[in-house]
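Submission sheet (multi-component)
Chains listed below:
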Amino acid sequence: MRIVMKFGGAIMRDADDILKVAEIVKGYRSKGDEVAVVVSALGGTTDSLVEIMKNIAYAKKARMEKMLDSIASRHLGVTKRIEDPKLAEETEGTVNRLMDDFRNVALGISHIGELTPRSRDFLLSFGERLSAPIVTAFMKQRGVEAKALSGGEAGIMTDDCFGEAEPLINVTNMQLKQNLEPLLKEGITPVITGFIASTQSGVTTTLGRGGSDLTAAVVGHALEADELWFWKDVPGMMTADPLLFSGARVIEKIAFKEAIEMAHFGAMVIHPKALEQGINNELVYRIRNIDDPDGRGTLIVRADDPDDAKKGAVIRGISVIDKVYLINISGARLVGTPRVVARVLELLSNEEVDVLMISQSSSEANVSIAIPEADSGDAMNILELSLLGTSLVREITGEGNYCIVAVVGKGMKGTPGVAANVFKSMADRKINIRTIAQGSSELNISFMISRDDAKVAVEALHRDFRLDEA
Ligand code: ASP
Ligand code: MG
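Outcome: structure written.
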């Protein structure tokens, strides 16, 4: 079987974790499977790089140096666990060289004081540039022939939309095949950096945060793999967050479109962009648990999968976005509403604030927008600064301590009464609903409630919709 395996940062925090990764790959290789690997940066590295970038911009050099040292010593620490002296020396050399490159570019940028999207992507790429050779060395030490490749070296080409680059699928498919097939045929496991790619003229790009999943999907499709496995520290996709409801269980099978909805509403086990790639293809995706490697995990299938036992189920799972902030904008004139909405969305998007939900009433010039609570300060500032005192807007207020609950399932499409039952569940528990939305795809119904009601709401829906029945 040909398998593409993706290992994320959450399961690659230290040397012991990476040893586990090497063991898993070794296991399948010895069974005769062809394995290609896609890796993220070691857990938390990309966040640190983002933090460093902030300090470059504000020219806080001392702080930047300190953070660089800590990234270097973390990676060198892991490298120390490579027993073979030659491999260890080689990998240490690679880590040091990469850190020098990073330092030079970072210092150069901080002298100029201008961080362009292009140089930002270049610096962001170092997390994966560092992790791939380290993982490769651990695999070699376990006797697995392996080769580290950057996304660009592997053949992933994108446009030059830095920070959120789009793969150019035709060239990418061709090149990935050309570069990786010979390795697989020779029994070498390619270890490809997730997240980072290259323009056709060789400039480094990134696919957006969490983009390693997309890399894995692109590689899986190009290589016409039999399966694409996302190794995780959870047993699979769950019917609900087990922290909110202990009776949640693993979803054995879910359709791509449902998984995308779950991901959008907080249960981001796999990046939605990677799931989008799967909708119209034959490739099977599977979520597997690194701590229970023989467990079944979750299988993600096409909507018309003939063996999907729960095909008729109305609801597949419940997702929750926690810590949501509601902004209410009251306009002076109804006619101005579309303009207000357009302007508000533009302002929020410039601040890189995610809009989670919008509701607009028709009787009043009133728009409510839900955003992550963490962004509420920035969002309120920019909206007040730009809109108050203009003829468009009379008042802007904000309220925190909300969450958004989404019930997801393709079975609700065309089934009358689902919404009524969802809201009856809430009413029976005396839970007040603040705003409601239903995606036009009819794959989800989502609503906003107080965070204090989240547990009761999830448990109620889980029971009333019999999600505990396998
Ligand atoms: N390292 C990148 C990030 O943290 C990409 C990924 O992990 O998927 O966003
Ligand atoms: Mg990830």
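Remark: Residues 2-233 form a domain with the Carbamate kinase fold (CATH 3.40.1160.10).
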